[in-house]
């Protein structure tokens, strides 16, 4: 296991030096943020990021994310050129020692929450999701985290219209087409593609979501068996679906999991949840048994603590402040060490 930490590049308010000070931190998970989706990431930009990481004594082996252009998800004729660009980005990243690329295939929106700063009784704040609130939102006029805010309302409207013709089956076919197009670049560079599950794992605003549960993965690996077709096992995203048995899935797919996002949440209704500190006792996900299932089934990938609360007065980027994620890393380090040693 290699412990990592997400870093939003030079604009991140958290300096690399602080990240390096967290015990056992091997590297950062980062991205080139100023290249428009669909264009090739230039070597100079990757080289700059890499040299900043080198100077801080941190590795840059994981990229999160290289975003997938909507035309690829929609299966439009322009996709072949865009897939070729994506493959070129993979090859460029390979030149700088990148080993794993996290991406997602969620139409239009990435992760969604209805409140980014919910106040807890202890004074900390956390992210949460209330399904009823989500249903009351107007998809055409949204300002939510985690997705491309650069769309004009007209573009967004147009996209939502285009997706009306895309079923779950079609979206899955488009994912398979995309993966088949980039696997040669992965085989050549040794880079693993790690698909992030849909967050939360159900359809949003009438848009199909296809990476939500165990069957999604069975179907995915049957369609694209290449060993570079892997998973980002995000406990919080999958765990929001009460139908998912996470220790079982962690055990079953351990060999395909190249990257794990480990975080905790507390159920507040059938589809409602609030995020919590990482430890098992802090929520409803059995973090201990998830780590145990990973470890005892040969998982040997990258791990990062995921969304943290804002604590100790920090006003960090929602989910991505320093303190609670550092506490999460410390907890996960201890858990991995104990379980790994017990297993020997
Ligand atoms: C949220 C993140 C996601 C993730 C992308 C991967 O905190 O886990 O935004 O980076 O879905 O493509």
Describe, in plain words, how this protein is organized in 3D.
The chain has 344 residues and is α/β, with parallel strands linked by helices. The protein starts with a strand and ends with a helix. The chain has helices at residues 16-21, 43-56, 70-74, 79-94, 131-135, 153-163, 168-189, 214-223, 235-239, 246-253, 287-296, 323-342, and strands spanning 2-6, 27-30, 59-64, 100-103, 115-119, 125-129, 192-195, 229-234, 257-262, 264-267, 273-276, 302-305. The chain has an eight-stranded parallel barrel with strand order 1-2-3-4-7-8-9-12. The protein is globular, with a radius of gyration of 19 Å. It contains twelve helices and twelve strands. The model has no long low-confidence stretch (mean pLDDT 95). The chain binds D-mannose. The site of D-mannose has 13 residues, from strand 4.
List keywords for this structure.
single chain; 344 residues; alpha/beta; 4-stranded antiparallel β-sheet; 12 strands; 17% strand; binds D-mannose
Brief account:
The chain is an alpha/beta fold.
Morphology call:
globular
Question: Into which percentage range does the β-strand content fall?
Answer: 15-25%
Residue stretches low in confidence (pLDDT < 50, at least 5 long) are none
**Heteromolecules bound:** D-mannose
Largest sheet: 8 strands, parallel, barrel
Taking strands numbered 1, 2, ... along the chain, how are they ordered across the largest sheet? 1-2-3-4-7-8-9-12
- What structural category arises from helix and sheet content? alpha/beta
Question: What is the helical fraction, as a range of percent?
Answer: 25-40%
Distance from first to last alpha carbon: 15 Å
State the oligomer: single chain
Give the radius of gyration.
Answer: 19 Å
Q: Order of helices and strands, N to C?
A: EHEHEHHEEEHHHEHEHHEEEHEH
Average pLDDT, all residues:
95
Compute the number of helices: 12
| Tally of DSSP β-strands | 12
């Amino acid at each position: 296991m290699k412990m990592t930490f997400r870093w939003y590049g030079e604009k991140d308010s958290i300096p690399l030096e602080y990240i390096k000070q967290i015990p056992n931190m091997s590297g950062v998970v980062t991205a080139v943020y100023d290249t428009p989706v669909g264009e090739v990431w230039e070597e100079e930009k990757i080289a700059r990021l890499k040299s900043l990481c080198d100077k801080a004594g941190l590795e840059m082996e994981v990229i999160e994310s290289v975003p997938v252009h909507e035309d690829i998800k929609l299966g439009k004729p322009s996709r072949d050129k865009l897939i070729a660009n994506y493959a070129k980005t993979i090859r460029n990243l390979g030149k700088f020692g990148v080993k794993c690329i996290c991406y997602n295939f969620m139409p239009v929106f990435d992760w969604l929450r209805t409140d980014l700063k919910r106040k807890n009784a202890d004074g900390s704040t956390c992210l949460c999701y209330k399904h009823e609130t989500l249903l009351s939102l107007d998809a055409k006029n949204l300002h939510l985290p985690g997705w491309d805010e650069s769309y004009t309302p007209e573009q967004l409207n147009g996209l939502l219209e285009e997706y009306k013709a895309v079923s779950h089956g079609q979206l899955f076919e488009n994912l398979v087409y995309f993966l088949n197009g980039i696997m040669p670049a992965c085989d050549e560079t040794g880079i693993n593609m790690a698909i992030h599950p849909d967050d939360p794992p159900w359809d949003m605003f009438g848009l199909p979501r296809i990476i939500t549960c165990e069957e999604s993965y069975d179907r995915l690996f049957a369609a694209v068996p290449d060993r570079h077709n892997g998973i980002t096992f995000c406990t919080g995203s999958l765990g929001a679906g009460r139908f998912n048995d996470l220790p079982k899935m962690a055990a079953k797919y351990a060999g395909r999991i190249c990257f794990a996002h480990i975080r905790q949440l507390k159920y507040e209704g059938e589809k409602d949840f609030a995020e919590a500190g990482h430890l098992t006792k802090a929520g409803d996900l059995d973090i201990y048994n998830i780590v145990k299932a990973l470890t005892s089934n040969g998982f040997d990938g990258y791990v990062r603590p995921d969304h943290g609360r804002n604590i100790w007065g920090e006003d960090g980027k929602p989910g991505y402040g320093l303190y609670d994620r550092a506490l999460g890393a410390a907890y996960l380090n201890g858990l991995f060490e104990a379980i790994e040693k017990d297993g020997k």
